[in-house]
Amino acid sequence: MNGLLGKKLGMTQIFKEGGKFIPVTVIEAGPCPIIQIKNKDLDGYEAIQLGFGEKGESSVNSPDGGRFKKAGVTPRRFMKELRVKEVGKFKVGQEINVDIFAAGDFVDVTGTSIGKGFQGGMKRWGWKGGEASHGSMQHRRIGSIESGPRLTRVTKGHHMPGHMGNKTITVCNLEILKIDKEKHLLVVKGPVPGAEDSYLVIKEAKRLPKGSEKAKRRLTLKVQTKRRGEGAKTGERKAAASKKK
Questions:
Q1: C or N: which end of the chain has fewer Cβ atoms within 10 Å?
Q2: Other C-beta atoms within 10 Å of 93: how many?
Q3: How far apart are CA 129 and CA 121, in angstroms?
Q4: pLDDT-derived band at 113, boundaries 50, 70, 90
Q5: pTM, entire model
Q6: Residue 90: which of 48, 46, 30 has the closest Cα?
């Protein structure tokens, strides 16, 4: 699977013909050197470990420093593993750039959402709240949390006040509108999770939107391969039946 590591630079907008504008997110994606390659024989799965964002050697511990030195790359701030089907195509120290994507591709972007600290139920879960009239005393309170007269405990997963945000979120099927190969920039339609300067994982979309041209191509390819397979099977059956006769 194609993938890159990057950093969210911020949001802006692109104007189209007729004055229509589209909100977009600008992402600095790559260059990402391959620090380590995982094999089925040694690790039980196939993956490549990418790095992004340089940092000083004085802030690197000895295990990570040994890995960077072995790969022949400078220390990196953000590292992640991406599963791939064919590990033989990649080499340790090889740089993966933004040119693995093209305008019109769809990607899944994973990031950490903005932390909002401890919040009440109305903000965290969108509760309606109590009466706003004078003397109600239930404007923004929780209310009853008991599940019923017989069940004398609070059920698991009950919506309560608590920590909000700071979770790993993936936004799927974001269209790439522009690519700047020289500055290593991706311009993606819509918002992505996280604050500015937060790190992101950009992967090739697993499930394409139904109306897209790429999804139609995938569908036609699947239909063609199925028909060819069915034809081969029917031919084999006919040949076996003729031999029996």
A1: C
A2: 12
A3: 9
A4: very high
A5: 0.74
A6: 48
